[in-house]
Write a structure and sequence with these properties.
Blueprint lengths: L7 E2 L3 H6 L4 H18 L3 E4 L3 E4 L2 E4 L5 E4 L2 E5 L4 E4 L8 H7 L3 E2 L3 E4 L7 H18 L9
Antiparallel strand pairs: 1-2, 2-3, 3-6, 4-5, 6-7, 7-9, 8-9
Helix pairs in contact: 2-4, 3-4
Length: about 140
């Protein structure tokens, strides 16, 4: 079976975020780092080359594939700030309706700039996503334990 491409590593989160070329995206990423650290109570860790993740959980599919992934995280992509919100977007629909300007993908929430969204609602979405993942995966843990 293929190994997961996105795994936790010892990369320097602040150095990575400081290297983001777009000034607004870099500044929004530092705010996102503070928000996710505050909401999760977990330390940030690099996942792959470009994702800042918080916590981890172990998954195992019926196919036999298994691995570890972050409980939540974000990536400062060129097109948008990408947040990883787990548990299915329909679960958070009432919150998304109050969030402000955003787009969604499979497990991603795309925000062009944090000024476009209500940060208190964003905190609620992150908290609910992490609580859901912890309830589904009681073995979940901080990323550097």
């Amino acid at each position: 079976m293929a190994e997961n491409k996105t795994t936790r590593n010892d990369g320097d989160v602040l150095a990575y975020l400081g290297s983001v070329a777009n000034k607004r995206r870099r500044e929004d990423s530092l705010v996102m780092l503070d928000i996710m650290s505050e909401v999760t109570g977990l330390p940030a860790a690099m996942w792959g080359a470009s994702i800042v993740g918080f916590g981890s959980y172990h998954y195992k599919y019926a196919s036999g594939r298994e691995g570890d992934f972050m409980l939540t995280g974000f990536a400062p992509r060129k097109q948008a700030l990408t947040l990883y919100i787990m548990g299915g977007h329909e679960r958070y629909a009432p919150l998304f309706a109050r969030l402000g300007k955003h787009r969604t993908g499979k497990s991603c929430l795309y925000i062009n700039k944090l000024a476009d969204v209500d940060l208190d609602v964003l905190r609620e979405i992150i908290a609910e996503s992490v609580a859901f993942m912890c309830s589904e995966h009681p073995d979940s843990a901080p990323a550097n334990e």
